[in-house]
Amino acid sequence: MLDFRQVGADLELYRRKLSRRPSFDPSVLERVKTLFETRAAAIAETQALQEKKNAQNKAMKQLFKSGRDEDKARAREEQKALSQAIKDNETKVTEVEGQLTALMLEIPNVPHDSVPDGANEDDNEVVRTWGEKPDFDFEAQDHVVVGERLGGFDFERAAKMAGARFAVEYGPVAQLERALASFMLDVHVTEHGYREVAVPLLVNTGALVGAGQLPKFEDDQFKVPFSDNVDYWLIPTAEVPVTNLHADEIITPEVGSLPLGYASWTMCFRKEAGSAGRDTRGIIRQHQFNKVEMVRFVEPETSYDQLELLVQHAESILQKLGIHYRVSLLCAGDLSANAAKCYDLEVWVPSQGKFREISSCSNFEDFQARRAKIRYRNEAKGKAKLVHTLNGSGLAVGRTVVALLENYQQADGSVVVPEVLRPYMRGQARLLPLR
Fold first, then answer.
1. Is 0.85 surpassed by the pTM of this model?
2. pLDDT tens across 71-117, in order?
3. Domains (ranges, CATH) in the chain?
4. Helix axes 27-66, 69-104, angle to 10 degrees
């Protein structure tokens, strides 16, 4: 979240910057202004009362030496009243700061100056393109047809046990999912220096707040009541638990030198209620999916260089797999609420004749770190500062399966396995159809 002290002190600056987000309601800043001014007045009054109390303390020293008993009693009552007034004002400040903090949880991050203006994905800027579209001399099929020919998909049984937007995968497709996750993790760990971490799939409310998923995206989450006073949530992405590895901590050289990078493979769970009618066929948009996530904790001065590095790490997976893709810089109107800047990696999907997002790489600056209280200190006696957090899919495994099935399909219904993936596929060079 943003710092209410900074927002309140320069309201017009934040009004101007946040107005670049078309969906942002600027009236919320008026509430920030009112509360910030109330807080400032209460602090000023507290200081004035404290000064008055201090002055009376000095006068009372002389009074208690030679003053009358009734004057002493009156002075004690005045001191008691001042102490109570100070306490009441301090309580008021605390209450107002609580209201400001709750309000800031609803306000999105400020787009970085390098983020282009725009209303939606149509206004995103293509930064670069890699590879070539496959040239088929036959009628190419979508991933559902290709996968079913391999005996790899069963959507009817998935719907019977769980409903829409779920899939059962068999044989080569199930193996492909597992192979891709292992391949991605190996690349990120051995080549890019990430530390592999396995994390819980259920987290508490505080973890979702810290990562910026609550309260704004509550409707997208699967809530799991546990007891009368405890709720768990299925993670929407490994970003949530991995970011919270260092919640309420100060990262010191003893913990690890920045930048710290973690890679994690998890199942992810997300309600697709807001996507009714979109991508209902196949596995592009599901309630449950697999993903390899990269999370980096970095010093603020380096975070935008680190973002470019993170994008390169995600790109390297697609390049090794030989999949045609492009990198797009998201405009302010398409930017997630938590991100200050974001690149999307989009793979070519032949059946749709367009690019589809397979990874989002974002710099959140200190937006998550302030929520989760993640700080760092480079020196033993140095001042603790908020880190900058970054995350990116490295990659969304299911969508990579889609890209492989469609881009590597053959006229006979088989699918060529990219060479780098064959060691993870028991040496198979080609997936053969059942019929």
1. yes
2. 667 777 888 889 999 999 999 999 999 999 999 999 999 999 999 99
3. 4-104 (1.10.287), 121-431 (3.30.930.10)
4. 160
Pairwise CA distance, residues 264 & 188, whole Å: 10
pLDDT tens sequence across 174-196: 999 999 999 999 999 999 999 99
Pick the closest to residue 244 from 387, 45, 36 (CA basis).
387
Q: Are residues 92 and 295 in contact, defined by beta-carbon separation less than 8 angstroms?
A: no
Q: Which amino acid is at 180?
A: L
Tell me phi and psi for residue 214, to 5 degrees: -120, 145
- Quickly list H helices, 67-109: 69-104
CA distance 395 to 315: 9
Q: Where are the beta strands (DSSP E) in 226-340?
A: 231-234, 249-251, 260-269, 288-298, 325-329
Among 303, 276, 242, 274, residue whose Cα is nearest residue 112 = 303
Strands 260-269 and 195-196, by their bridges, are parallel
Only one residue has tokens 């500062």, namely: 385
Report yes or no: 125 and 331 within 8 Å, Cβ to Cβ: yes
Among 422, 312, 301, which residue's Cα sits nearest to residue 361? 312
**In this structure, what token pair is assigned to residue 162?**
């769980």
**DSSP state letter for 435:** -
Count Cβ atoms within 10 A of the Cβ of residue 163 and give its class: 0-12 exposed, 13-18 middle, 19 or more buried. exposed
Interatomic CA distance for residues 50 and 90, integer angstroms:
11
